[in-house]
Amino acid sequence: MTGSFKYAFFDFDGTVCDTEGQYTLFWGEIGRKYLPEVPGFEHIIKGTTLKQVFERYFPDKKLQKTIEEALDEFEGNMNYKLFPGVEEFIANIKSQGVKCAIVTSSNLIKMASARKSIPEFFALFDRVFTAEDFTASKPAPDCYLYAARTFNANLKDCVVFEDAYNGLEAGMASGIFTVGIASGHSPEELENKCNYIITDYSTIDYNTIAKALTR
C-alpha cells in the first residue's frame, strides 16, 4: 500500500543547502571575539535561530546590531551549495503535482542572497517563508502550521523535511509527517526525533516518501 502527499515543506540550511560548515566558521569567530569564556560556542548554538542566540548570549542591542550586520555581509558572500540529488528529487515530486515551499528561520536579506546565487533552484518552489512570517521560532510549530494554512492544506497531505533538532521538533509538533535529513547528525542521532530518515536525496523519489507515509 502506498500513501500520497500534496505539499512538501523544506527547511533551507542543512536540509537542502550545505551551508552548516560555513556557519560554524562564522559563529566560531564570533564566539572567540565576544564570548571567549564559552569554548566551542559555534557547536553549542548549532540548530538554534538567530533570535534565540541573541536572547541567550547577546542581550545588548548594540552588539546584536553589530553581529547582525556582520552576518548579513557573510551570508551575502556565502557559497550556496545544494546537496547532491536535491534538485532532482524536488523536480520529481513537483512532477507528481506536489506544491513545494521553503520554510526557514533565515531572514529576507539572506534568502535574497541565496536566490541570487541559485535562481534555478528557487524556481522549483511555490513559496518561500522566512523569519519575518512567524512570531515564534522553531522548535515552535508555528512556521509549518502557517505554511499549511497559506496553502489551505490538510496537515495529513503535507510532509516536512528538516535536519536540525529544533526543526524536527517543530515539524513533529505541527502534526505533519516529518522526514529527518541526516546531514549534520547521524541516522542514529535522529532516531525517535522524526517519522522517517534519509541520508541521500539521490536514492529517493515521490514513491519513496509516499510509501513511508503508510508505515
Strand order of the largest sheet: 3-2-1-4-5-6
Which quaternary structure do these chains form?
Answer: single chain
Evaluate the radius of gyration. 17 Å
Distance between the termini: 9 Å
The number of distinct helices, counting runs of at least 4 residues, comes to 11
Low-confidence stretches: none
Strand content: 5-15%
> Order of helices and strands, N to C?
EHHHHHEHHEHEHEHEH
Shape: globular
Helix proportion: 40-55%
Class computed from helices, strands and strand pairing: alpha/beta
Rounded mean pLDDT is 94
Extended strand count: 6
Give the tags:
single chain; 215 residues; alpha/beta; six-stranded parallel sheet; 11 helices; 45% helix; 12% strand; globular
